[in-house]
Amino acid sequence: MLQLEECQFMKICFATHNLNKLQEVRKLLGKDFELVSLEEMGQKTPLPETKDTLEGNAFDKAAYVFSNYQIPCFADDTGLEVEALNKAPGVYSARYAGPQKDAEDNKALLLAHLAGITNRRAQFRTIIAFMSSTTKQQFEGIVKGHIVEQPSGKQGFGYDAIFVPDGYTKTFAEMSLKEKNTISHRAIAFKKLLDFLKTNFD
Description:
seven-stranded mixed β-sheet
C-alpha cells in the first residue's frame, strides 16, 4: 500500500489549465480527494506537449509537475481519432487548425476534411498518467462514435458538438455534464485512476 502521507492527505494535482476538464474531473472525484489545479499550485505557464503520442504527452506533464512540486499528480492527453483520416487529428487534436488552439477552427477544418466522405466513424481516446514517489501508472479510456455533418449543442468543449457516441442520437455538446460523465472517454479513464487510488491509498 502507498502511504497516506505521500498523498498529503489525498491532495492530488491535476496537471491542466483547462477549466472545462477540471470541472468534469472534480464532478467525478467527489469528496474522497482534494484536487488542486496547476493554477492553485502556482504553475501559470502551459506545460509542453512535444511528444507524438498521447501517452508521451501525458507522462511528460505528470513528470514535470511531480519533479517541480513533489505532489502526487496526474495528467491527461486526449485525441479524436477519425477512421477515414487515418486517426487524425489524434495527438494534434487541440492544435489541428494551428497553434492558436481554437476549437471552432478545429471543428471547421475537420468537417472540411470529411466533406463528401461517408465513413464518419471516430473515437475519442484519453490517456491519464499518474505519478507519485513510488508509482507510475497509465489509464486509458475510449468511446466510439461518429462525426456529424453540422455542429449541434452548446455544452462541452472541443469537438463535443460534432461527436455522437455509439448508442446515442445526440452529440456530447447536447448532453448535460452529468450525462456525459457517465460515458465519456475521460470518465472511463478517470474511473480507472480512481479505482487505483482507492485501492492503493488508505
